[in-house]
Design a protein that fits this description.
The chain has 593 residues and is α/β, with parallel strands linked by helices. The chain has helices spanning 38-41, 52-57, 59-65, 100-112, 131-138, 208-224, 257-265, 290-302, 319-323, 337-340, 346-361, 379-382, 405-420, 450-454, 494-497, 509-522; strands at 32-36, 69-72, 76-77, 89-93, 116-121, 151-152, 175-177, 191-193, 228-231, 309-312, 333-334, 368-370, 425-429, 530-532, 542-547, 550-555, 561-562, 569-572, 582-583, 587-592. A hairpin with a 2-residue loop joins strand 15 (542-547) and strand 16. Helix 6 (208-224) runs parallel beside helix 8, helix 7 (257-265) crosses helix 11 and helix 13 (405-420) packs parallel to helix 16. Residues 1-8 and 255-279 have low confidence and may be disordered. Bound molecules: alpha-D-glucopyranose. The site of alpha-D-glucopyranose has 9 residues, from loops.
């Protein structure tokens, strides 16, 4: 299904601007934000796990790359049962990652280079090693200590059946029963709710003490100088009253194409009474009560100077429900999982882009774009899985069909150039600037993700995208740290993709990112408005739009596509055939418009 368009018929004139974001100068509205996953970014002390001194040592890499901000996944005190998303102390650094002084040094180093810093806040659950949970275990049922979490009696005459039928997102029941104790009532030991691992008990957000505690945590990090927070599971804190049974099963990351097309018609300002646009993620997610929390946090951030921001990790649908998290008095941005989950298909891309822009614009929030993060298969591997259109997200195991690495990288570069040409804010995941694939053949005995264990291996889990970065090709551990140790093994291909093999090398993925980020900034693309190229608006394989003075043309089809004669190429994701003037298959180009 590819049509050929001849040189003479291509007209890159754009239509009227389809979207004009309100740009009030807040830095996060058009920022490119780089996700550092601290355990896998760079190892300063040689123990095989990345750390904050490692981040500080590599800040020049980020400054050279040309991003605006860094978001760091959790580095707080934690038993690391879910790689730090199980926090035991929200106000301290885990010794694995360093000290508060190391954090301050990293923050100062980033600020010196003009990089903003966003930290991760995990409010839905704590670690079972958090002092509050330990106190709750020691206290009696019904005590104030237990009220900080979601303890319930079991069902059945002896209380030995789960309080409801909810499933953990990592597999298995969402409830764990306590050990018996003498003061248990007739229903025996209580159960506690954990939407994730059993070591991650859900906090009780109906308890004002929990609100006060987290406002204190926000202030702790704001006082230290952070520029914002990425809010983990932002749609999860409030559960439907009575915790009703629900037969659905939630997955790690969701977002559908249907959601995007539906959303273009939905009304983001719909009333909160559920009369229209109700969320459909079950009684544990997207309850209207969460919005009161964000309104309160918005006020806390507003007390501080500068533009501090809150970014929602909320897996809600349709997009109109997501837009409610970024209304003017709530959070500032929300991850766009509809874009991340979109398959390699031009019509779908256009639909998702349109729906994303219009839905966020309706509430005055910037649209965000993201292709990879620490929870999904990297886009260089996803797009190499031809037969499922790049939609495989929850890990690829050694015995699964393996991606086509060359195709994956080729498409990933094209997808990235398409993304960076869009107005709004874009998120990158560490290593994508090197074109890294997942380690898709990790042996099971090195896996650490709780979702692998809780599904008895049915889900490979997320370790494949969390492999330590290669900095020096061919060095021990490819230069991840001074000893060559890496907490997960790297695949062979990481040697040739190492950062030092790409710096200054024309055509390398790093240099492509650098060029695109430089142009994006110089041309003010992030703050621009998108207008579709009229003559290509219905093309089955081509996505073409203008933002500022840049025209982005992506060919997602199998057949070369003729570009206008004499077009000035600013940056391309792959080699162009100068003689024919054609844009090859799976390639994106930025042209001077
Ligand atoms: C978020 C994080 C993920 C973590 C989960 C539980 O989805 O991105 O890594 O496992 O929350 O905190």
């Amino acid at each position: 299904m590819t049509s050929t368009t001849s040189l003479s018929t291509v007209d890159l004139t754009a239509g009227a601007p389809a979207h004009s974001p309100a740009n009030s100068g807040e830095w996060w509205r058009d920022a490119v934000i780089y996700q550092v996953y601290p355990r896998s970014f760079a190892d300063g002390d040689g123990d095989g796990t990345g750390d904050l001194p490692g981040v500080t040592a590599k800040l020049d890499h980020l400054a050279q790359l040309g991003v605006d901000a860094v978001w760091l996944s959790p580095f707080y005190r934690s038993p690391q049962k879910d790689a730090g998303y199980d926090v035991a102390d929200y106000r301290d650094i885990d010794p694995l990652f360093g000290t508060l002084a190391d954090f301050d040094e990293m923050l100062a180093g980033a600020h010196e280079r003009g990089l903003k810093v966003i930290v991760d806040l995990v409010p839905n659950h704590s670690s079972d090693q958090h002092v509050w949970f330990q106190e709750a275990l020691a206290a009696a049922p019904g005590s104030a200590e237990r009220e900080r979490y979601m303890f319930r009696d079991g069902r059945g005459p002896a209380g030995d059946e789960v309080p409801n039928n909810w499933q953990s997102i990592f597999g298995g029941p969402a409830w764990t029963r306590l050990a018996p104790r003498e003061d248990d009532g007739p229903l025996g030991p209580q159960w506690y709710l954990h939407l994730f691992d059993s070591t991650q008990p859900d906090l009780n957000w109906d308890n004002p003490e929990v609100h006060a505690e987290f406002e204190g945590v926000l202030r702790f990090w704001l006082d230290r100088g952070v520029d914002g927070f990425r809010v983990d599971v932002a749609h999860g804190m409030i559960k439907a009253a009575g915790l009703p049974d629900w037969d659905g099963q939630v997955a790690m990351v969701e977002g559908t194409v249907e959601e995007a097309s539906e959303a273009s018609e939905a009304d983001p300002s719909a009333p909160e009474d559920g009369s229209t646009g109700a969320g459909n993620r079950g009684p544990m997610f997207d309850q209207d009560g969460v919005h009161d929390i964000y309104r309160a946090w918005h006020k806390v951030l507003a007390e501080y100077d500068g533009d501090r921001c809150l970014v929602a990790e909320a897996w809600v649908e349709p997009l109109s429900r997501l837009a409610r998290y970024v209304r003017p008095d709530e959070m500032h941005q929300a991850f766009n999982f509809s874009f991340l989950t979109a398959p390699w298909d031009a019509a779908t891309m256009r639909t998702v882009v349109n729906a994303s822009l219009s839905t966020m614009e309706a509430v005055g929030a910037p649209t965000t774009w993201v292709l990879s993060n620490h929870d999904v298969v990297r886009h260089a591997s996803r797009f190499g899985l031809e037969e499922i259109g790049g939609r495989q997200l929850n890990g690829i195991g050694a015995t699964d069909p393996q991606p086509d690495a060359a195709l994956g990288l080729h498409r990933a570069r094209a997808a990235t150039l398409l993304m960076l040409g869009l107005p709004g804010s874009a998120y990158m995941y560490q290593g994508e600037e090197l074109g890294l694939p997942d380690h898709t053949a990790l042996p099971d005995d090195v896996r650490q993700d709780p979702s692998f264990f809780r599904t008895n291996g049915a889900e490979p889990g997320r370790d494949g995208c969390r492999v330590p970065l290669p900095w020096v090709g061919g060095a021990p551990g490819n230069g991840f740290g001074p000893t060559g140790k890496t907490w997960l093994p790297q695949p062979d291909v990481y040697a040739e993709l190492a950062a030092d093999r790409q710096y200054g090398v024309e055509g390398s993925t790093f240099e492509m990112y650098r060029a695109a980020l430089g142009l994006r900034r110089a041309e003010n693309v992030g703050a621009g408005t998108l207008a579709w190229v009229d003559s290509l608006a219905e093309h089955p394989d081509v996505v073409a739009f203008r933002v500022a003075d840049v025209v982005v043309v992506a060919n997602l089809g199998a057949t070369p596509f003729a570009l206008p004669a004499g077009a000035q190429v600013l940056v391309a994701s792959g080699e162009l055939d100068a003689a024919s003037g054609e844009l090859p298959s799976d390639t994106t180009v930025w042209l001077r418009g």
